[in-house]
Amino acid sequence: MGSSLLLVAISLGTICIFVYTLSYPRRQLPLPPGPRRLPLIGNLHQLDIKRPWESFHKWHQQYGPLVAVKFGARTIVSISSDGLARDLLNKRCATYSSRPRLSVCSENNAGELHAALMPHSKRWVLHHRIALTLLNPGLSKQYRQLQDLESQRVIHELLQGNDVAHSFDRYMASVSFTLAYGLPVQHHNQREVLQIRNFINGLRDAMSNMFVAVAEIFPLLDQLPGAFAIWRRQGEELNRHATAFFLDNSMKAQSAPGWNWVRECERLKETQDMSLREIAHVLGTIQEAGMETTPSVFRVVIKACLLYPACLSRAQEEIDEVVGRSRLPSFDDMGRLPYINALIHEAARWQPITPLGLPHCPLRDDEFMGYHIPAGSTIFPNNHSMVNDPEAFPEPREFKPERWLQSQDPPFSPFGYGRRICPGRHHALDSLFIVISRVVWAYTITHAYRNGEKVDVDAWDTHTSFTSSPAPFPTVLRVRSQTHQEIIEEAWTSTKEKLANFLGTFNPTSGG
C-alpha cells in the first residue's frame, strides 16, 4: 500500500513538473516593448491626454510595430501595422472578439446595452446578430432607394444655401430614423436629431474626460459614494435620457405606417426573449455609430476637395465622362467611378475618424511574435500610426486618392477587424458614394472670402476626443452650370412626392 502511494505521488509530481515546465516559458515571455514605467501610474505621465494617438505614434517610431504601456493597472498594447492587426484580430478572432470592461463609459453611461462597447457575452452575440441581419449586404442594397431620395434632398438644400455640414447631418439622421422608426427628418435641428446628438456628445465627452479616464484605469474609484463619483451620476442620467428617447421612438414605430427596423426586429428569433427596451438600445447603438462617423467622413472629403482642387477637378472629369451633365450619378455608376471611390477611401485614411481604432480585449492569455499578451488587456489597432506609415503610404500627410487606384488591398481597415468589424460598413459606403458623387457632380468647392481676403483653412484643425472630426471650416459651394441647377430642381420636384409616399410602399424584406 505504501509503495503504491509513493508511486502515485511520484507520478503526480512528475506530471506537475512537466506541466510547469511547459508553461514556464510562456509565463516568462515579456510584454511587447515600450517606454519605462513608474510605479502605480505606469506610463500615464507620458501620455498626451488630448491626442493620445500622437504619443503612441512616437512610441511606435522608437519601439516598433507592437508597443505595450501601462496605465495604472491596465495593460495597453498598440499595433501600428495593418498586417499584424489582421494576423492577431482577424485570424485569432475567437480570442480577440471582446472589448475591455469600461465600468463608467459602458456600464454607467450606456447601461451595459451599447453593443459597440459591450464585452463578449451571449447578449453581445445576440445584439451583433440583429445588427448583421438589419445591415447585411442584401438589405443594404434595398436601402439604396431611401439613400437615393435623401441624397437628392441634400443637393437641393445646398442649392438653397444650406450649410454643407448641416445637410450631411440631416441626411444621415433622416436615413437612420426612417429605417429605424419610420420617422423622416426634415431639418438638421429637429428635436430628435438634437437629442441623439446630445447622447453621442455625452458619451464621447465621457470617454475623453480626465476623471472618467482615471476611474477606468483605477476601477476602485468607481466604488466611491455618489457624492464623490460625479461622473457616475452624470453617466446614469445620460443613460436614463437615452433609454427614454430610444424607447419612446420604438413605441411610436410599432404603430407607424410601413416597414421599419423595430417591426422587423419583433419578427426575428433573436429578439423573442428581449424587452422592447433592449431592442431600442440595439437600434440606438446602430444610429449613434452611423451619425458619429459617416458625416465626419463627408466633411473630410469636402475639406480635401477645398485644399486639393486638382483632386476635385479629376473627380469631376471622371463624372462628366461617365455620367455626363444631363443626369445625376446613380448607384449603377458606382463600379464605373473608381476615382470617386478612391476619393472616399483616401478621406477615411487621411484623417481617420477613430485614430486609435476601437479597442479589442483578449479573452485568454496569448502569445504573439514572441511576446505575452495578457487576458483582459486593451488592444488598439492604431489607425493613426497605420495611415502615417511612409512605407505603406508614401507622403502620408498628403491627400492622394490615386494611391487607392494602384492597390487592390491597401494596408488599412477603417471599419475595424475581426468579429468587431463594423456591421454597417456596406450601408455607410453606399451613403458616402451617393452623396459625394452627387455633390461633386453638381458643385464647385472653393474658399470663402471675408473683407476681400481668402479665409485660410487648417487641414489639421479637428475636434478630438476618442474620435476625431474636422472642426467647422468656411467653404463656398456653387452650382457648376445652369444645366446642373435645372436637373437638380427637376429631380427634386419628383423626389418630394416619392419621399412623401415612401413609407407606405417601402418593404425591403420583400424586395420592394
Automatic annotation (TrEMBL):
Cofactor(s) listed: heme
SUPFAM superfamilies: Cytochrome P450
UniProt signal peptide: none
InterPro entries: Cyt_P450 (IPR001128), Cyt_P450_CS (IPR017972), Cyt_P450_E_grp-I (IPR002401), Cyt_P450_sf (IPR036396), Cytochrome_P450_fung (IPR050364)
Binding site for heme: 422
Keywords associated with the record: Heme, Iron, Metal-binding, Monooxygenase, Oxidoreductase
Domain of life where this protein originates: Eukaryota
An example Gene Ontology molecular-function term: oxidoreductase activity, acting on paired donors, with incorporation or reduction of molecular oxygen
Family: Belongs to the cytochrome P450 family.
Protein name, as recorded: Cytochrome P450
